[in-house]
Specification:
Length: 778
Amino acid sequence: MLSWPKPATWPSIPPDSSAEVMAKEKTILQAKAREKLFDIQRKPLPLEPSSLLREANRRRAFLSVGNLSELYDSVDGSGLGAHSKLSPNKSSSNLMTRTMSGPATSETSLPVDRPMRLSEIHVAAEHALKQTISDPDFMTSLSSPEEFESRYMELTKGAADNYHRSWWKRHGVVLDGEIAAIFFKHGNYDLAAKSYEKVCALYSAEGWEELLADVLPDLAECQKILKDEAGYLASCVKLLSLESSLFSSKERQAFQSEVVRLAHSEMRHPVPLDVSSLITFAGNPAPPLELCDGDPGTLSVAVWSGFPDDITLESLSLRLSAFSSADEGLKAIRSTDARVLVPGRNIITFDIPPQKPGSYVLGALTGQIGKLSFRSHGFSQDGPVDTDEFMSFEKPTRPVLKVRKPRALVDITPAVSSALLMNELQWIGLIVKPIDYSLKGGILHIDAGAELKIEESQMIEIESYRSDGEHSSPIDASKVLSRPTDTGRVEKVPIENGKIKLPDWASDVTTLVWFPVRAINDTVPKGTSPASPQKHSIVDGMRMIALKLEFGAFHNQIFERTIAVHFTNPFHVSTRVVDKCNDGTLLLQVILHSEVKATLHVKDVSLDLQAGFEHLGKGDGRPTSSLFPLVIAPSSKAGILFVIRLSGTKDLDELEQADSMLHIKYGISGDRATGAHSPVPVKPDDSEELLFKISLKLKRPVLDPCLAVGFLPFSTDCLRVGQLVNMKWRVERLKDLEEASLSDDEILYQVDANPQNWMVAGRKSGHISFSEAQGSRI
């Protein structure tokens, strides 16, 4: 307790003090050093026995170089451990410097006596203190360690309270650490832990890591004794996160062992552990990962581990935060790699499920060590990192993931818009065009609608495709038809249950997929005539095909579209009577209209007449001319002439029930890239000759009319909705009526009007009287 520096000459041993020396030596030998938690080793303090022994003997006499070995031999024999020895070179230089720098006294020239033992140094110092202290209370405080600690606690508490009251709180907290050491020594661990927590909080906030490294192990020991598992874990993590040079490798491994031991034990109150200061992470310095909407991906993240050894994690998850929002509502993404972190830098990959469009930054790293869950908000510096140990805790601003807004990734359109042949096996082409996206591994589902059948026994043809718009020479845009390249790649693939697997080479190029279908229509088509006109609807030949393309790395992208395909008969047939003779002979013209964009070759035609008509000549139903084969160009028409006459039947029911049937044997020459074409052969021996049947409704002409009926014009040229108008007909007798079903002077009339357009007021049917004289009118 003397003023510092110590006196140049250490006090000598008083006479008759041998008993005190023996008692002090016994006390020193019986004293046991407290075992430090984690087996932490520290450099000896200046007043520790090893330093005190050396310093006291140095100040007793002048030590020449020749006497150094004698002194060290004596020192080693004083009961000190091996840890207090110094190497001869280093020790000699330090001791010489200290000796020569001290003030010269008369004792420096005396011969070197035997070095004092530690017990003798204690006794000599105590006697010297008693001679310099006159205050009896102070003397009482130095009479025993218990009295000294009591006075020390009183003074330290008073000073700490004064510092806290004067707002010099940092000084007060430092003194709280001194008080905590006394509490700790006497086993009052609860109060010691509270004081240590204040000290550690101050040292940590100020960044005084060297001071924190001295106090934090004591706090951890208090928490361990008090079974404060959460606090003890946090202290161990904090010890690991301090600068590595403050502890030896063995000590840091002891910290990690405690963390792992507790993590795998049954904790009474498990709490999430914050390891932000120990485990940090950052995105790759490369550009952010870009994904399309709905796409999963793989994100690489650099994770730095501050543990001295490898540590096994039961799980490791990453949360992403939206760049434009502070919300952290995204689901945790689990790592797919082995969860063993090595000291320093680790590259961990995470499977990213589909996310909403936007930019994302790193949010938090969570995981599990044994049964203990942990969480880290420690972000490493954005951009390239030069060393594996560089860490910071600033929230990153550079996105690591960008999810694009929804856009078209692929387009599927029909290759042909013109009509195909009804009831025949035809190729349908689909243009599959990827839009800056790979279709590798894509599967195309084709679902044929009603009255449409896919022929799965045939192989599907897939070929590379380009449009005529890519030609360099100018072309009339109205005549441009998309068609496959002549030198493109072609591959045949099977179709199973309506599924087609696209080949790998077709993943990033536009392709044309051809598959055979047959449109089914069991209804016999009907021809038209001036007497029975019919409107042909294009909707009747429409067939729907539902398409679904599954593509993407995990078939997560879905493209769906329903396309309409037009099917039609090869011909539309109309009839008209070219001439009629008084003897009942008729010249019937059958007009064949081409309905397809292909050349039709008519090889033979025959007509089966309905009741009431018969053929003249051979009676085989053939036309009068034999100009077969008859070639009909696309969208053209041709006429065929038949000579028929009325037969003698007068059964009206028979006349109205049956229709005439026209049989046409034909062939077709067309390109599937344009429209209708020759049917796909199912068997090798299938004939290319096709048969088309159509019914014709023939009405017996009136060869000898008795009456003429004419419609008179309206009274006004402009008709309005809701206007009442009068409709008038004129009936004229052409000749005398020989046979009348009713009376000779009456005829039956009936008015038939379309109810959607007309509202008829008055009688719609009835009898009227009519004169029998030829030329009479009404």
